[in-house]
Amino acid sequence: MTYELLLGHLKGEWHDEKGNDWTVTGDEAKVRLVGRDEWKPYQISGKKNKLTLNGAKMMKAEDGIIQWKSPPSVGCGIKWTEGIGEKEEPTPSPDPEEEEPQQVAPTPPSPDFTTRAARIKYNHRKNNQFMSRRSYGYNYSRDSSSEDDDSGTATYPLVRLSPESLKYTPMRLTLEERKDLRIIEAAIRASNYTDVVDDPCLTDDKRDARIYKELEHFLIGLECCRNGPSEGLAAYKAKDLTNPMETAKRLIEIARRHKMGSPNTSIHEYGKLLYLAQDCYVRMKDEWGDVGPVVTAETQVKLHDLGGILEDPRLPLATTPVPRLSSIPELNKALKRKNKVQKQLRRKYGSMSEQVIYSLDDRNVFIEENAMPIAEMIVLAKKFFHPDEPTPETHLSIHEGESGSRLSHDHSKHFYYVVQSLTFWKNILKDMCYLWVLMEQDMLSSASDFRDTGQGKNRVQECPLLYSAVENILQKTKEEVGAWVGSERIHMGDNQVPNGLHFIDKYTQVCRIIRPIINTLSGVENMTEKDSDQLDCIIEVWGSVKNLQLAILRDFFRFGFDGSGGSNDDDAGSCIDGRLTSAWNWCSLLRTKPFYPAFLLSGFSSFDS
Length: 609
What we know:
Helix content is about 50%, strand content about 5%. With about 600 residues, it is α+β, with helices and mostly antiparallel strands. Helix 7 (about 240-260) packs across helix 8 (about 270-285), helix 14 crosses helix 19 and helix 15 (about 410-430) packs across helix 17. It is globular and about 100 Å long.
C-alpha cells in the first residue's frame, strides 16, 4: 500500500527516527542513509509537489522531524513518483541554443514491495549480488584488466613446492582410472587372500603352493571383471597368464597411487593388496618382472613437456589450500580466485596441466589436514606452558608408576620431550608421500619372514630405504628443537613394528588423535559464547573456560607422553615408536577423564570418525 504527502511540508533538511538525513528542494530530494557517506538523489515527477513512498505505511512531518510508523528498511529502494490521480505535465522541448545536457544512466526501477514474498526475494537477491545489470542499462563489459595479468599473490601464505617434491607427488586419477579402481577394490574386498595364505597352521611348502594357487585364481577373476568372461576363460584354458598379469599390473598401480594420494581411503583393502602384490613381484619375479613405479607429477610434466608451469608465479596460488578465513565473503572470494587461476593455467598449458595442478593441490591438502593440526598443538604447548616457570595448573612433571607412567621427567624435561615428539610427527607427515614411495619399494623388492611377533603371526621385513629416510627426519628434528630427550631408537622390521606398512599406517593416524583435541578446545569456547547455561556449568566445575582448556592440554601432555601403553619395556617407553603408543593409550582412557563431557558437548564421537 502507498501513501501520499505534500512535498511542501518536507522542504529543507530533516532527520528521521532511524537516523537518516534528508534534503528536500522544490523538484529534488536527497537522502543519506545510516552508516553511509554518500547522498542518494531521488528525482521528483508530476506536479503539485506530491510524494509517494513505497514500502512505508505512514509518514508525517511535525516540528522538523519526519515520523515513520513503519519505515522502509535501509537500502530497500524508496521511490519518488507523481501523486495518485495527478497527470504529468508535458515535458517542454529543449531549446536548440542551449547546450545539450549530459546523458545520465537511467535510475533503476524500484522493486515491488506490496507483498512480503516480493520483499524477501528482493533482499535475498540484493544480499547475494545476483541482480541483473543489463535491465538497468549499466555497461556490463568485462574488467579492463586481463585475466592473465594475475600476479599470483594472496592474503594468506602460499606453499611453494620444490622440484624434488614432484618426484613423490602421485597423480590424481582420471575418470577412466577411477572405473578401474572400483574393479580392483571390489576384487580385493571379495578375496580372502591373506586369510588363506597367511595361515599360521601351514608349513612353508604348503603356504607357497597355496600362494601360487590363490594368485592364479585372483588374476583370472580380475581378467574376467576387466575385459570380460571370455578373455578370462581363454586365459584359464590356455594356462597363459600374460594378459591377466598386464591387467593386474595396471590396476594395482592405480590402487597404489590412489592410496598414496588419499591415505584415509581403502583402509581395509590396501594392506591385503600390498601383500598380494609383494607375493606377485617376489615369488613370481620371472613372470612379473620389476616393480613399476607409480605415476607421479614429475612423470606427467616430462611426458607432456609442462616444465613451464613449474616456473609460473601463479602455480603456488593454484595449489595452496584456502585457509579457514573468518569472513565468509573473503573465503568465497579466495576460492573463486583460486579457481580462476587454475583455469588460466589450464588454458595456457593444456588440459594435462589440470591433473598436475590438482595432484599438487591434493598433496598440499593432505599436509594441511594432517601436519598443520600438530603445528597448532605445538603453538598451544608454547603458549600455555613455559619450560622454566610452571604453575600448579601448568606443571607437567611425571613419575614412574604414577597413573601407569613408565617415565620420570621433571617439568622442564617433559616440556621439551612433548614438543620434540610433536615436531617429529609433524615432519614425518610433511614427508609422507616420500616415505610412502620408499615403503613400497622396500615391501615389493624382497620376501618377508612370516613369524610370531607376540601379537600373532605377521610378515616381518626389514625396510632399509624407509629406515634411512626416517633417520634423516629424526636428525632434522633434533637440529630444529635442540637437545634430544629420551631414546632415539626407531623400531622397524622387528616385533614392535613388523614392516614398513605398519610404520606408515601408525603415523597416518596421528591426526586422528590431535584433531579431536583441537576441536574440543575451540568448541568449548564457541559453545559457551552461545549458551549461557553451559558457561555457568563450566564455571561451576572448572572456574573458567581457560581452566578447562588447560586441564585438557595438561592431562594430554602428561599422560599421553608417559611411556605407557605397552606390555613390556620394548613395546613402550621413550623410543620413537613408544611415544605414539602412549598417545593411543591416552585416547583409550579418555572416557575416564573428568573433562570427557566437554568432548561430547563439542561434538566428539570417536577418534576414528
